[in-house]
Amino acid sequence: MELVVLGTAQDGGLPHVGCERPCCARARRQGRELYPACLAVHDPATGALLLIEATPRIEPQLALLHELAGAHDRGRRPVDCVLLTHAHIGHYLGLAHFGKEVASTDSLPVFCSPRLAGFLRAHGPWGQLVKTRQIALHEVAPRVAFSPLQGLTVTAVPVPHRDEYSDTMAFKLRGPNKTVLFVPDIDSWQQRPGLLDELLDGVDVAYLDATFYDGRELPDRDLTKIRHPLMVDTMRRLATRAKAHPGALRFIHLNHTNPA
Ligand SMILES: [Zn+2]
Ligand SMILES: [Zn+2]
Ligand SMILES: [Zn+2]
Q1: What contacts 239, CB < 8 A, 6 or more positions away?
Q2: How many domains does the chain have?
Q3: Within-domain flag for 257
Q4: Is 153 part of a structural domain of the chain?
Q5: Containing H/E element for 195?
Q6: Protein residues near ligand 1, an ion, with CB under 5 A
Q7: Does 260 fall in a domain?
Q8: Which ipTM value was assigned to this complex?
Q9: CA of 174 to the centre of ligand 3 (A)
Q10: 185 Cα: distance to centroid of ligand 3 (angstroms)
Q11: What is the CATH number of the domain that holds 105?
Q12: Extended strands (E) in 58-211
């Protein structure tokens, strides 16, 4: 089984709407783009594809996935299933492309928390995707392993994060050879005692929230009000682990302003 990284940026990607700073002005000039955080799993034995997050840039991300996986003629089933962490725009708006106006998928399995499923059912345009069976919601209970693809087990771990519309999950993906953690959005590693240890337990490779570097990239924001662990703090906290396991800790979900 292969893991594919289809995006590494924060919800708004890069260039970011309205940003005229060098980070985005230069990217616009050069035609360079970074897509919102998104992973996929490909099983070369069966051709099965799992998408983790449906971002606003789902079209080029799926095109890239199909190219890398050598997938052709998938028609109305661009992937076999989708996992969603939470209801912030960079993480689920792409679901709209599964609707009648675009891919018109047929009961595409979408795995998410019961609260996110409730939100999607109750609000347009997402509720229509459920009613007309473009997507089929599968509610996953926290810390109860499920298997969205044969040979892959996934566990959702709830994490603290701004939760107006839904709660937020991190996912642990256990394949035949490796276990991968995906936690693109979290308010803090220490809000709940033991959370970071729980998240990293048994994990070979972790993709961690790296929205902001050290806060200096946001001169107008009060550092104490930034609701993400700063990259420099995460690096400090996990330095021993990083040294012992080179390549095991990777950063994802970088804000357009993040100098890293
Ligand atoms: Zn996000
Ligand atoms: Zn920018
Ligand atoms: Zn978020």
Answers
A1: none
A2: 1
A3: no
A4: yes
A5: helix 195-200
A6: 11, 88, 90, 185
A7: no
A8: 0.99
A9: 24
A10: 5
A11: 3.60.15.10
A12: 81-83, 108-112, 135-139, 146-149, 152-159, 168-174, 179-183, 205-209
For residues 75, 78, 82, 85, the Cα torsion angle rounded to the nearest 10 degrees is: -130
Non-local CB neighbours of 206 within 8 Å, separated by 6+ positions: 180, 181, 183, 199, 200, 248, 249, 250
Torsion angle, CA of 103/134/36/165, rounded to 10 degrees?
150
Tokens 């999607």 locate to 120
- Read off the pLDDT of residues 93-152 as tens digits, 9 standing for 90 and up: 999 999 999 999 999 999 999 999 999 999 999 999 999 999 999 999 999 999 999 999
Phi, psi dihedral angles at 37 (to 5 degrees): -50, 130
- The pLDDT tens digits for 152-166 are 999 999 999 999 999
Asked if the structure places residue 47 within a domain, the reply is: yes
User: Bridge-partner residues for 158, per DSSP?
Assistant: 169
Amino acid at 258: N
- Tokens, residue 232: 């420099």
Amino acid occupying residue 58? I
| Domain ranges, residue 133 | 2-252
87 alpha carbon – ligand 1 mean position (Å): 9
